[in-house]
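Service request form, structural biology core

Requester: graduate student, group of Dr. S.
Request type: structure prediction, single chain
Budget code: on file
Notes: please return the result as structure tokens.

Sequence provided:
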Amino acid sequence: MDIQLLTQVEKQSIGERQPLPERYLRLADDEMDARIAAAKRALGKRLVILGHHYQRDEVIKFADFVGDSLKLSRAAAAQTSAEFIVFCGVHFMAESADILRSPGQTVILPDLAAGCSMADMAAGDQLAMTWRELLEMGFDLNSIVPVTYINSSAAIKASVGEHDGVVCTSSNAAKIMTWALSHERADGTRADRLLMLPDEHLGRNTGYKLGIPLDRMAVWDPNEHWGGLTPETIERARLILWKGHCSVHTRFNVAQIEAFRKRYPAGKVIAHPECTFEVVQAADLSGSTEHIIETVKGSPKGSIWAVATEIHLVNRLAQQVAPDRTVVTLDPFGCLCSTMFRVSPNHLLWVLEGLLEGQVYNQIAVPDGTKRWAKLALDRMLEIR
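Core staff response, request fulfilled:
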């Protein structure tokens, strides 16, 4: 994928998403960089910028902390002195930062159009309906522990927290799911099964690694009555998977792995666990973005890798390890997270210069009622090491 070409096209249509003042639409790259750097210096310790790995290079270079969702969640919770947390990521990440922030802090998302299609696949009212339908089917909700991927809305995290559940990331999913299955409640009871949402692939791949057979997993479709399942199916299930996916990671397929192996017989494939079960099984290794980075950087010189995750991370990693190691994307057309791509330098400059002028643009504020329960689920995650 020609990222530079895509960037040029995006520049032509940047004002068609979240409107920006005219003066921010057609700036030269050098001027934009200089002004962002100047605004960042002027704001000093009042500001911290968090950047997810999937951000474009033009934005990520200004981040104070770069990482995956778990690393950035911890960074957000630890930044107790900064007045402003600018999150270069997507909406659910900024919500998590607002839930974990200290009193008096303000969380900002440079472009409100930066959402997550996976997070949108689980709505709060859908989960509320799921609880009601499980009761209709005769199940004690205390026998089911919900685990939500951090790629979910604050409303979902709140419902999970209220039902004695926990948040996970791709980095700690195995540890969190293990905890959830062995966690003893105050009344001495333990869960019989987990409800994992909203990404069925992360749940399936992680559960399988933990020894849960595929025939003890069931997929709950929130758009079907009773999730499209029978009570008998759920009774047998150890793991109930919400029907959701990442539009980036499900583009990878086994045929791409086979093509890579033909071209690079000595090469290895490492896949993100949001990929399908078939891809993860066909790959040599799988793991979170942090795990992928650490594995590739720690591999012997001369290693050749195909990486099944978002193209910005793959390209950046390839540059960092060259020329000692070779890194290519598993998908020859590149898999770009279009919602992450929406955070542009233009939007970053706009919110930073707004802060200098005393204006807060795009504040993310989770309602207190939602925040209370969502924070409980996030705190549980952060406490599990």
